Automatic annotation (TrEMBL):
Name of the featured protein: PadR family transcriptional regulator
Residue span(s) of domain Transcription regulator PadR C-terminal: 96-192
Domain Transcription regulator PadR N-terminal positions: 11-84
Pfam short name (any one): Vir_act_alpha_C
Domain of life: Bacteria
Amino acid sequence: MLRGMSLQYALLGVLEARPMTGYELTRFFEAAPRWVWSAPHSQIYPALRQMEQAGLIEGRQEIRGTKLRRMVYSITERGLEELRTWLGTDHAAAPVRDAFFLQALFFDMIDPDQAASVLKTHVAEQEQLIAEWRAHREALLAKDTDLLKERLKNRPPAEHDRIAKLKAHVFAGQIAVARARADWARESLRLLAEET
């Protein structure tokens, strides 16, 4: 079992919907605001090699056009079993490493205007995430994302609404977290204004 390696489980979860090339996976994971996990190209390809060696996925070379070769990865039965085991297992919370809150912890060391600038930027970033996640949540509820469409092809129609609602609910959680962070930053701005 690949314990503690969430990227591999994220890749397995995506590949369960449909086979993809490393390039497609990289593009998917680089679009982080549309999803819950991000990873750079430099992490994805080594993970794919490791997963293939472990028998969790298999790569099949395809030829596009006359010469272009590409590797298409798909999940194996062993990979699906591994993913389901991981999904059904309680996992300890990851250690907290939040650069923004670490920065905020030491705001007393800088000019309040500088701290306010950081806080305002954070609020704007959270509002942008809320907008992106809200749009993605709505697309999921409408069953109108490429990956969900692929996943639903392999699921009984009676389950489609439940699957879409479960996936959309994850983004409702992301929205709630971003809203709480933005509200916290606004309260911090109020506290900074009291000091001056």
